[in-house]
Design brief:
With 364 residues, the protein is α/β, with parallel strands linked by helices. It has 2 domains: 99 residues, Enolase-like, N-terminal domain (Enolase-like, domain 1); 245 residues, Enolase-like C-terminal domain (TIM Barrel, Alpha-Beta Barrel). It is built from 12 helices and 17 strands. The strands form 3 sheets. Strands 6, 7, 8, 9, 10, 11, 12, 13, 15 and 16 form a 10-stranded mixed β-sheet that branches. Strands 1, 2, 3, 14 and 17 form a 5-stranded antiparallel β-sheet that branches. Strand 6, helix 4 and strand 7 form a beta-alpha-beta unit. Helix 4 packs parallel to helix 6. The longest helix is centred in the middle third of the chain and has 18 residues. The chain is globular.
């Protein structure tokens, strides 16, 4: 059915969230992340009974969109085309795909596979807790095993213990121990590491020398993305026996700067947030990244729902080799909308994003 036959008659809200499979601790600069959180989603309805929903990109004015034709707000080939509707990016993509009776990834072009590699993003600095008797490497070992049991086969390790929580050298030594432990326990896994800008150039050089045989898949946000530091990193990686990918762009990104770094061969993977940046924005950006031989992996930590969004970007636009998974479950819905099996996230072929709200989670 054509989008032009649908008119927006209502925009309500719903509460959705996450329940992690364990308490998640600190990263290099931020305190404990807890057991999950709750977010407000928007629910868009039309005069023909179609409904779509999604997390908002920002605040907006729902009342201004009542009575608007859906085709005036979103073009299936481009994304959201009405500036006043950009905050409803994911809800409108869900709605349009449901009207067209296709999954979102198919509406995006199905340039990738509907079976998407998915790593655990949940290995935080839990070795530092509890404060009165830190569990040490036992906690990391247990968390890796729990995430493996959940279905993940690849893992991202939070690093940067010496930035805030431990003395510099002791923290760096623990970062190295954790990396080597993960590689020893899971020799076939892709290991990704992320100090959340908590390394100095010297710390990174020492760390890479100590884990040069661990075959890291990527290094993420090692320090703020200054061109000079990334030039040093690229040159230094060329001297090592194994060269991990450089991933950046998650925190408060300057996208023009990210593109300049990509074109200068200083960035291998762009990480702008799935929701903070937006689906329409990713649709516009991906051709430029592809042209510069730079991959993408939209940041998805926080809610399993964001992992689902990132996976649809991967399956729809291509150029996304792996996405970030959240070890936990989505609240306020009829399920996570996907199946995680042996490290692969298998997308549903249901229309839209393939996930429905429960009646208890919805409100007007």
């Amino acid at each position: 059915m054509s989008l032009s036959r649908h008119v927006i008659t209502g925009i309500g809200t719903a509460q959705v969230g996450a329940e992690y499979i364990r308490e998640v601790g600190r990263n290099s600069f931020r305190g404990h992340h807890g057991r999950g959180g709750v977010e407000t989603a928007y629910v868009v309805e039309t005069d023909r009974g179609a409904t779509g929903w999604g997390l908002p990109l920002s605040t907006g004015d729902p009342a201004a969109l009542i009575g608007r034709n859906v085709a005036e707000l979103i073009d299936p080939e481009l994304g959201v085309i009405e500036p006043g509707a950009e905050f409803l990016d994911y809800a409108l993509h869900d709605l349009a795909a449901r009207i067209l009776d296709v999954p979102v990834y198919a509406m995006l072009g199905a340039a990738g596979s509907a079976q998407v590699r998915c790593y655990s993003g949940g290995i935080y600095l839990d070795d530092l807790d509890p404060q009165e008797a830190p569990a040490g490497l036992t906690a990391i070992k247990q968390n890796l095993a729990q995430d493996h049991e959940f279905g993940f086969r690849d893992f991202k390790l939070k690093l940067g213990r010496g930035y805030r929580w431990m003395p510099y050298q002791a923290g760096l030594d623990r970062d190295i121990e954790v990396t080597r432990l993960a590689r020893e326990l899971y020799p076939e896994a892709d290991i990704l590491v992320d100090p959340n800008d908590g390394f100095s150039v010297n710390a990174l050089t020492e760390y890479l020398a100590a884990v040069s045989d661990c075959r890291l898949y990527w290094i993420e946000e090692v320090y703020a993305e200054r061109r000079e530091d990334l030039e040093f990193l690229r040159a230094h990686l060329a001297t090592l026996p194994w060269r991990p990918k450089i991933a950046d762009g998650e925190f408060d990104p300057n996208v023009d700067q990210i593109l300049r770094l990509a074109r200068a061969d200083l960035l291998d993977v762009a990480l702008m947030d799935a929701v903070g940046y937006g689906l329409t924005a990713w649709r516009r950006l991906m051709p430029a990244l592809t042209a510069s031989s730079t991959e993408a992996s939209p940041h998805a930590w926080g809610l399993p729902l964001k992992t689902l969004y990132a996976a649809h970007i991967a399956a729809g636009l291509g150029n996304v080799p792996i996405v970030e998974g959240v070890p936990g479950h989505t609240l306020g819905t009829d399920g996570d909308g996907y199946q995680l099996s042996d490290g692969t996230l298998i997308l549903s072929d249901r229309p839209g994003f393939g996930i429905d709200l429960t009646a208890a989670g919805s409100s007007s």
